[in-house]
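Ticket #4471: structure output looks truncated?

Reporter: J.K.
Steps to reproduce: submitted the chain below (229 residues) through the standard prediction queue, then opened the result file.
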Amino acid sequence: MLASRRTLLRRSAATGVAVLCLSLGQAALAANPQVRFKTSQGDFVVELYPDKAPQTVENFLAYVREGFYDGTLFHRVIAGFMVQGGGFDTTYRQKPTRDPIAHEGRKALAAGLHNRRGSLAMARTGDPHSATAQFFINVVDNERLDPVPIPDGDPVAQFTHMGRTYRNVPRADLENNPQLYGYTVFGQVVSGLDTIDRIRDVPTGAAGPFRSDAPRQAVVIESARTITD
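Returned output as attached by the reporter:
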């Protein structure tokens, strides 16, 4: 009887540990915030990666929480490239934003995030540190938009970019070159990629201030809300 009781206790302890591990595992899987977008073309959900691009994710979530994206457009659609939104209302008035954020593309790239189909990245101007609220979703693999890794060393003994090789380049010259920053990926479409494809396929032309690539029939973000944050 004693042996049986010990066996039962061991089994109970093992079961408890297994349940705890499973619970912790599920908590870890659920740790990344998600945002559901409702659009005039359907819904989609993005998962964000605060451990890989913390400032970018927090900036994006701040806009989501304040309802900034509600009633904005996907204003730029290029079928073999990406769909971009989050900056203009339905009258093509550009919405005011907070200050730009620092570029985190290299940190995100080192953590494994690439501009691939379905990934979510920040839009910006030619200044790498100019991203505010606008974002884009890659509809194909666009790894040419990734930051360019800088080899070790100072000066960098050899650096090859776009078919040209440079030798003994001061490291700061490469790290501060705007053409090498790429675009910061900070999330991924985890549900509703078919919605993104529908947006990708809408006819485009001139609209608002844009001479091309604007949907001829408005693609509206009706709401954007966190669902696991």
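Triage note (M.O.): checked the attachment and the full token line is present. The mean pLDDT is 90.
Status: closed, working as intended.
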